Amino acid sequence: MEKPGIYIHIPFCLKKCPYCNFYSVIADRNTHRLFVQTLCDEILQKAPSYKKVEFDTVYIGGGTPNSLESDAIVEILSTLYKVLTFSHETEITLELNPECVTKKDLDVYRKRGIHRLSLGTQSFLDKELAFLGRIHTKEKNLQAIQYIQSFKTFSLSCDIIMGLPEQTKDDLQRSLEYIDTIHPEHLSVYLLTAEEGTPLYSWFQQGIISQPDEERVKELWLFVHEFLIERGYEHYEVSNYSLSGYRSRHNSKYWNNTNYLGFGPSAHSKWGNIRFWNPTSLETYLQKNSEPEFEIITDEQTMDERLMLGLRTQEGFNVNAISKKKTKENFLKTVYALNHDAGKVLLKIDRGFLKATLEGWTVLDTLVEQLVEKLIEP
């Protein structure tokens, strides 16, 4: 059985980006310090129940984790290691935003055993960074990367956002050419999504900005795939690429239905068939007077999630997990019908695993919606 992981949510940003729906706030240093103390108290209170379990990943995300002092990051990790058991090969990832990266902080991270850094580059075009509401520039990206790679000890992951309104293939290629030069070990390529409740969503709804054409976005997505595959990257999940041996071990736990614990406001956990999460409010979190919400995950939900998440990955979904013979038969009939109706292979069966082809990945939401219906049939 795969070992579980730890997620730590740092809810602070210097500025809220108009497309982001992750929980974050802008706060002063005093609030930062109070948060770190509260977070460490939460770990000390809840983690001992899991002391006999060995963990092998820690992911510190946000927000902007490196908006905290580096000593605070060290304190959080020291608290975790004080009460939990970790593998000798634990992957520790820290998310960074380029505007906050310093050599001094990087040296502190290195000494504390953080060896994987996820940098929110998003684009290497200043016009795109401005549209996304980022406060860094292309030059800040390059400076942060130069600092990180000068240590020669960090594994680097970069983010690229594609599918921006008016984004052209040439625009995207310019960012990818910087990636080619930098050659990070890992790359996440996210499609710009207008999440309800964000300013970007309102802009689209009001017609202030036009949504990009779906066919054009598909062409760009396929272009990214070809560009990165040609340069030695493995496309191991819909939005993620890595050089050999550098997949995100922590994020793979989500896709593989592995247990994980979350600490901090809005942080989610999954342990066995129970999912639980902290309130999405820093104020409530700091008051320490609220219990996590939770839900029991039904067998039906588990199967749906395994299908949805499995098809996002190169490994796919284990069809043999469908125990009812009739359900499996109808499920497979739907797979063949989807391919037939599309006039192309969107899904394939490989050694008992259902996998989406490259074309299938471009319409994955539609495929999953129709396949899930067959899983819930009596």
Short structural description:
With 378 residues, this protein is an alpha/beta fold. It is 42% helix and 21% strand. The chain has 14 helices and 15 strands.
Provide a descriptive summary of the structure in words.
The protein is an alpha/beta fold. Helix content is 42%, strand content 21%. It has helices spanning 29-46, 70-83, 103-111, 126-131, 138-150, 169-182, 199-206, 214-230, 249-255, 282-287, 299-310, 325-342, 358-362, 364-375; strands at 5-10, 54-62, 85-96, 116-122, 155-162, 186-191, 234-237, 240-242, 260-263, 268-271, 274-277, 293-296, 317-318, 347-350, 353-356. The strands form three sheets. Strands 7-8-6-5-4-3-2-1-9 form a nine-stranded mixed sheet, sandwiched between helices. A three-stranded antiparallel sheet has the order 10-11-12, with no helix packed on it. Strands 13-15-14 form a three-stranded antiparallel sheet. β14 (347-350) and β15 form a beta hairpin. It is globular, with a radius of gyration of 21 Å. The mean pLDDT is 95.
Helix content: 40-55%
**Multimeric state:** single chain
Approximate shape = globular
The order of strands across the largest sheet is 7-8-6-5-4-3-2-1-9
Strand content: 15-25%
Low-confidence spans: pLDDT under 50, at least 5 residues?
A: none
Ends apart, CA distance between termini? 30 Å
| Main pleated-sheet profile | 9 strands, mixed
- Cα-atom Rg, whole angstroms? 21 Å
Tally of DSSP helical segments: 14
**Secondary-structure element string:** EHEHEHEHHEHEHHEEHEEEHEHEHEEHH
Which class best fits the helix and strand makeup? alpha/beta
Task: List how many beta strands DSSP finds.
Answer: 15
* Average pLDDT, all residues: 95
